[in-house]
Specification:
Length: 84
C-alpha cells in the first residue's frame, strides 16, 4: 500500500507498523460507527458504511466502484460454474 503511494519499495518496518496501526484504527472506528447506525435494524450492511462515507466523494465513489466490481465478479463466477 505504501509503495503504491510513492514510498520506497522496502519501507522501514516502523513505517509499515505505523501505517498498519492507523489503518486498523480507522477501520475499527468505521465499523463501530456503522454498527451504531445499524443498531435499530440489528444487522450491519454495506449501506451503513456507505451512509458514513457519503460526504467524502472520493471514498464514496471508490466504495461504490468496489461494490459494483464485486457484483461483476460474482456474476462471472456463477456463469463460469454454470458452463462446467
Amino acid at each position: 500500500m505504501m509503495y503504491g503511494f510513492g514510498d520506497d519499495p522496502e519501507p522501514l518496518p516502523e513505517s509499515v507498523e505505523l501505517v498498519e496501526e492507523i489503518a486498523i484504527e480507522y477501520i475499527t472506528d468505521m465499523v463501530h460507527r456503522a454498527q451504531e447506525v445499524a443498531a435499530r435494524r440489528g444487522r450491519l450492511t454495506t449501506e451503513d458504511v456507505l451512509f458514513l462515507i457519503r460526504k467524502d466523494p472520493r471514498k464514496f465513489a471508490r466504495a461504490k466502484e468496489l461494490l459494483a466490481m464485486n457484483v461483476e465478479l460474482k456474476e462471472a463466477r456463477k456463469a463460469f460454474q454454470e458452463e462446467q
